[in-house]
Amino acid sequence: MTASDIVPGRSCANCTLCCKVLSIPALLKPRGIVCGQCDWGKGCRIYARRPGACADFDCSYLLSPALGEEWKPTTAHLVLGYMTDADVILVFTDPDHPSAWRKEPYFSRIKKWAASTENGYVLVRETTRALALLGAEEFDLGAVRADQVVVRSKHPDSGANTIFVVDKAVADRVRSGRQGGT
Ligand code: SF4
Ligand code: SF4
């Protein structure tokens, strides 16, 4: 993203919540723990040489004018992201406020996103477990490991949607099998 993508008037000032809620594999930093390089509430001590995963991340509060000031991470205790290719809205929760996403005005909006998505879903990442929301349903995915992926699938007969976790290696094999068959 570039500075011109940021909603005018918004910035990371006084917020370092993504440095707590995201996992940063390059630093072996797990989800939910403040990064050792973070000057909490102020910024990154290694800003010029921070990993690519940090440099590439701008939360949806910064990028989306459709989100009001109540979504500011320091207010909401949530950090939002978006995976464009899979149409997945990511909701990372602050471990000090694990149920923040179930409070209003957030929960109604999150449920609305889950009900209106055509191909995606909402993925809520708590520190040790993940939940997916699709339509009116919630799928408790448990602890999703780094070598696993979340998959949305439609039952061929009933047409019912489901969301589950599968090993990346298995997902890759299924994908390459499909490509080989076309
Ligand atoms: S959560 Fe968003 S506003 Fe806060 S520091 Fe990260 S990118 Fe900036
Ligand atoms: S390296 Fe810097 S930007 Fe990345 S998580 Fe740590 S403190 Fe945040």
| Percent in helix | 10-25%
Helix/strand structural class: alpha+beta
Model regions low in confidence, pLDDT < 50 over at least 5 residues: none
Task: Identify the bound ligands.
Answer: iron/sulfur cluster
Classify the beta-strand content into a percent band. 25-35%
State the end-to-end distance. Answer: 35 Å
Number of strands: 9
Shape: globular
Strand order, sheet with most strands: 3-4-5-6-7
Order of helices and strands: HEEHHHEEHEEEEEH
Q: Main β-sheet, in a few words?
A: 5 strands, mixed
Mean pLDDT: 93
Gyration radius over CA: 17 Å
The number of distinct helices, counting runs of at least 4 residues, comes to: 6
Q: Quickly count the domains.
A: 1
What does this structure look like?
The chain has helices spanning about 20, 50-55, 60-65, 75, 105-115, 170-180; strands spanning about 40, 45, 80-85, 90-95, 120-125, 130-135, 135-140, 150-155, 160-165. With about 180 residues, the protein is α+β, with helices and mostly antiparallel strands. It has one domain (about 5-180). It has a five-stranded mixed β-sheet with strand order 3-4-5-6-7. Strands 1-2 form a two-stranded antiparallel ribbon. Helix 5 (about 105-115) links the parallel strand 4 (about 90-95) and strand 5. The structure holds iron/sulfur cluster (2 copies).
Secondary structure: elements and pairs:
Elements: H1 18-21, E1 38-39, E2 43-44, H2 52-55, H3 60-63, H4 73-76, E3 78-83, E4 88-93, H5 106-116, E5 121-125, E6 130-134, E7 137-142, E8 148-154, E9 161-167, H6 168-181
Parallel strand pairs: 4-5
Antiparallel strand pairs: 1-2, 3-4, 5-6, 6-7, 8-9
The site of one iron/sulfur cluster (SF4) has 11 residues, from helix 3.
